[in-house]
Amino acid sequence: MRIAIVVTGLGLSARATQAAITGLPASVTVGLLPYASDAPCWLSAARAAGHEVVLQVPMEPFDFPDSDPGPHTLRAGSMSSANAERLNWALTRFTGYAGVTNLLGDRFLTDSEALAPVLTTLSRRGLYFYDAGGTSRSVVPSVAGSLGAPFAQGAASLDTIQSALEIDRRLAELENTARANGSAVGTAFLYPVSVERIALWAKSLQSRGFVLVPVSAIVSAPQ
Fold it and tell me: What percent of the chain has pLDDT over 90?
């Protein structure tokens, strides 16, 4: 049974980013922001430590602009050419990532017409898309399936409540999902408590019959 963990937010804080890179098990996938200063350096450091890296692309949430992922946000209902320019901006910030994930984006991920060209572009570039599980209304599985685009679907966030007890509970739930389905993916932010609990949890994971893997090991392959 395989479990993948994606820890996002790398590049916001140098101290927190370094702590996540060095404190997390190598098999944990890390998400790097396109707005990060010294992003290529952080990506190199993450890969040198054994981490698979995904690029966090800003996408429109339901409460936009109250919640704003920043400039170059992919928008639901926008012309594909406009979103193509925004996506290209993010994809060209640095190189060496294995896939892309959403930064916010719960509204964008419910718009199949806006999503399809994005998944097509990523697939052509040999990149998978990881849906970080922000909304139960996501159309990623159906759109990716119809396009034959590689993707992985995440469960709910592991650290919506930033307490050791709650994170441990969510990690146990992730194990239950993996038992039922053969694999599972969870997402967390690089809060110190999240890094600490994930690192501790991973130490005994193998003894419970699980293997911690990068997201690419769980991605649904194109048909």
Answer: 87
| Distance between CA atoms of residues 78 and 16, nearest Å | 35
CATH tag for 2-217 (out of 3.20.20.370, 1.10.150.20, 3.90.1150.10, 3.40.50.300): 3.20.20.370
Q: Are 192 and 16 in contact (CB under 8 A)?
A: yes
Instruction: Give tens-digit pLDDT for 76-91.
Output: 988 889 999 999 999 9
Interatomic CA distance for residues 53 and 49, integer angstroms: 11
Instruction: Give pLDDT, residue 78.
Output: 80
pTM of the shown model: 0.94
